[in-house]
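Duplicate of #3305? Posting structure anyway:
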């Protein structure tokens, strides 16, 4: 195996430290000095990779989005399950992760989404792109489910996918407020036993 280039390691250290610090606090409340100290990287190295904190924020979001797509794909692409089962698996796995790591667990992109009115346009646009990618992938599976008769064809796939994302985000915010998994459980019950249940 070839050694990882030093530059790649330094960039990853910065992104990892930034993701942890911003998830724990917020983008605007987290200073560059704090991120550099956590990463153990000098200021000059930061500007070798990122033109500004804003540029760093966009890279953080793109990285988190890529990781989330990697998380989704084994479940959404699992052809041993029906489309609806694959769709449900995504949310059930997320629920299991919250159960394992705690209801107060913070995720980077939703955290930044709550700051959207205070974010610069490039960072805001990166958050928006991340949600659009998530919704678009869910919409693909919804279309598959409609094709095999698991979800009513009367639903517009894109709008339904957007609604699922919005409902999930609302449920996870309430989960953190209440410090209980009940809002997530309510999401699963409502969405899969009512909203997506095909009318006879």
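Output from current build:
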């Amino acid at each position: 195996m070839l050694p990882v280039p030093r530059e790649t390691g330094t960039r990853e250290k910065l992104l990892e430290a930034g993701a942890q610090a911003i998830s724990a606090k917020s983008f605007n409340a987290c200073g560059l000095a704090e991120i550099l100290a956590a990463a153990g990287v000098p200021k000059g190295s930061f500007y070798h990779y990122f033109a500004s904190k804003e540029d760093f924020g966009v890279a953080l979001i793109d990285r988190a989005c890529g990781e989330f797509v990697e998380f989704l794909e084994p479940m959404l692409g699992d052809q041993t399950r029906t489309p609806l089962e694959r769709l449900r698996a995504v949310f059930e796995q997320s629920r299991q992760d919250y159960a394992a790591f705690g209801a107060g667990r913070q995720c980077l992109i939703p955290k930044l989404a709550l700051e959207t009115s205070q974010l610069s346009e490039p960072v805001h646009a990166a958050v928006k792109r991340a949600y659009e990618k998530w919704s678009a992938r869910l919409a693909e599976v919804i279309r598959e489910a409609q094709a095999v008769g698991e979800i009513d064809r009367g639903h517009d796939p894109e709008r339904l996918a957007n609604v699922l994302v919005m409902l999930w985000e609302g449920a996870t915010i309430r989960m953190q407020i209440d410090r209980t998994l009940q809002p997530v459980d309510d999401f699963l019950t409502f969405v899969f036993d009512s909203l997506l249940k095909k009318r006879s």
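Confirmed duplicate; merging threads. Residues 33 and 50 are 14 Å apart (CA to CA). Residues 1-7 have pLDDT under 50 and may be disordered.
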